[in-house]
Design brief:
The chain starts with a helix and ends with a strand. The chain folds into two domains: about 120 residues, no CATH class; about 110 residues, no CATH class. The protein is mainly beta. The chain has one helix and 22 strands. The strands form four sheets. The protein has a six-stranded antiparallel beta sheet, with no helix packed on it.
Length: about 270
């Protein structure tokens, strides 16, 4: 009789545990400074270059993690790393570990055939020249990369994304066009008649480059004409010439405008 009762008890516990996992699958949460972040929706995708991107989204925030492959282990974040984390707050401020943040993403479990990844993360991300956040006790559970793409406006057919602050106001391009002429990769992000243009050499490698170094250039265009950059910084996070994917962070000044917190991610 005791064995029967024990067996039933174990069965109930096992069923309850499976039910809890199902209710919480997939999941992403963590502590951002002293505030608790929990995603209402978790998205993931396998990129063409073999990297994996995961996003946790709620009403006001987006937390993004990217690892350069899906081998179990620890992925360092920060200077020179192809893995990164970003956090977009309710005011659309973009905090990022690239190029000057730090942290780790640890992939602790996976099922490639099932299409999910599980792990933990912690990092410090920077809103350039303004603020730094610390993310601790983060985890993602069974983020599924076979069920769709990432958070974006599907109504636009673009080569990627470009977001920045234009004179302190959010500039999120509706149209993004990337072109490689064999010597220079040029990316244009536009909202109506306002265009941010960033150029880097076709063979650019990760690093920080002052605008004015050959091949590295920027400009801002309005209906009044083109304003060349008078100074600034372009940080190449990665440039995969095989898969033709480019991620760049940037800031620059023109005669009449200030572009800060720039972040572009394109296929060219």
């Amino acid at each position: 009789m005791k064995r029967i009762v024990l067996a039933l008890f174990v069965a109930v516990i096992a069923f309850s545990s499976c039910e809890n996992l199902e209710d919480n699958s997939p999941a992403m949460q963590g502590m951002i400074d002293s505030l608790f972040f929990k995603a209402n929706e978790v998205l993931a995708v396998k990129n063409e270059d073999g990297s994996y991107t995961m996003q946790g989204i709620n009403q006001n925030e987006v937390l993004t993690l990217q690892i350069d492959r899906a081998q179990l282990g620890t992925y360092q974040l920060g200077p020179g790393s192809a893995s990164f984390a970003t956090y977009v707050d309710a005011n659309e401020n973009v905090y990022t570990t690239s190029p000057n943040g730090s942290g780790v993403i640890e992939l602790t479990d996976r099922c490639i055939s099932c299409g999910w990844l599980t792990g933990t993360f912690q990092f410090s991300a920077i809103l350039e020249g303004i603020d730094t956040i610390t993310v601790n006790r983060g985890f993602f559970f069974e983020a599924n990369f076979l069920q769709g793409g990432l958070f974006q406006d599907e109504s636009q057919l673009n080569d990627g994304t470009l977001i920045a602050k234009l004179n302190g106001e959010v500039f999120e391009a509706n149209t993004v066009i990337a072109n490689d002429n064999g010597a220079v990769i040029s990316v244009e992000g536009a909202i109506d008649n306002k265009i941010i243009t960033i150029s880097v050499p076709s063979d650019a490698v990760p690093g920080n480059y002052g605008i004015g170094i050959p091949g590295f250039d920027a400009s801002f265009t309005t209906s009044d004409g083109v304003e060349p950059a008078t100074g600034g910084l372009i940080s190449v996070n990665f440039n995969n010439t095989g898969t033709r994917k480019l991620r760049v962070f940037f800031r620059f000044e023109t005669e009449n405008n200030s572009i800060t917190e720039g972040d572009l991610f394109v296929d060219y």
